[in-house]
Specification:
α9 links the parallel β7 and β8. The two termini are about 25 Å apart. The strands form three sheets. A six-stranded mixed beta sheet has the order 6-7-8-3-9-10, sandwiched between helices. A four-stranded antiparallel beta sheet has the order 2-1-4-5, sandwiched between helices. It is built from 15 helices and 13 strands. By secondary structure, it is an alpha/beta fold. α7 packs across α8. It has two domains: about 200 residues, P-loop containing nucleotide triphosphate hydrolases (Rossmann fold); about 70 residues, CBS-domain (Roll), CATH 3.10.580.10. About 40% of the residues are buried. Helices cover about 40% and strands about 25% of the residues.
Amino acid sequence: MNNIKISCRHVWKVFGPTPEHIAKTLGSETTVSDVLEKTGHVVAVRDVSFDVHEGEIFCVMGLSGSGKSTLIRCLSRLIEPTLGEIMVNDESVVAMTAEQLRELRRHKMSMVFQGFGLFSHRRVLDNVAYGLEVQGIPRSERHQKSLEVLELVGLGGWEQHYPHELSGGMQQRVGLARALAVDPEILLCDEPFSALDPLIRRGMQNELIRLQQNLEKTLVFITHDFLEALKLGDRIAIMKDGEIVQIGTPEQIVAHPVNDYVGEFTKDVPRVKVLTARTVMRPIKQKENLIGKAVAIDTTLEKLIPLTADSDEAIAVMDADQNMVGVVNRKHVMMALATIEDGQIS
């Protein structure tokens, strides 16, 4: 995940009669409510910068009105940004012509919406094939591709049904299949599971993780559910009032929330399931006594507790290349558990 797929620099979206003027003159201490009251403008996205790496799931999380859905629409210019630069594969999206933008949306970016957006008069097969139809792919070829993608998302055999004959979770799978059928490099997902029942939602989250392990797409995933962001995200950006207040891995955000706003989201998180050996390990000492065991660097505290419970000696911590990068023992784990109540891990 070293290659940068999407890069945003100082992106603004202001709604109102003179949006560029507001974006250029807005002081850092001026709140969005002040702007609305004094000028009638709505500041939806405020000076946002971030990178998304190839193959990662980048979750943007925030409460209603935080600007996250506006931001994801700016990435493909479904909403025109007021100011700033958006790069995809080192190409400026902001500078693209209408034709270039159509090509981007047809071949490189697909979007999955909360409301499914299925055509009620089309069978599942033709719903999935719609993007390929827009591309001008012959009927037999697009149907073959659509059948393959339906198998991939677990809907083989449902291709001749209509959307109203499917459950909510199945309809969302159709929406996901339609996005995947054009084989995009990037998936933009705007709260795709929020309308689903909890059990179905959990199943769809697991399905997305499974698909990502096989397909390795680049995903920008919008959610208002912090636990969903923790489960899916390689990294999480937390938004408030149009701004990003923190970006980090789930572990970094849970261990080190930057302010009370982020801390409120993390306080009820089961930290033993999120924090890992990476957080609690210590440097290797020359005369370290090791017990012959080793754990991966992403082993959770929940799994470390029984491994370290019966000995004070250290366990080697290994990175993805099987290099020893630190050690962890019962004391390290107990110290981490003792500080969990404060919401901070040193």
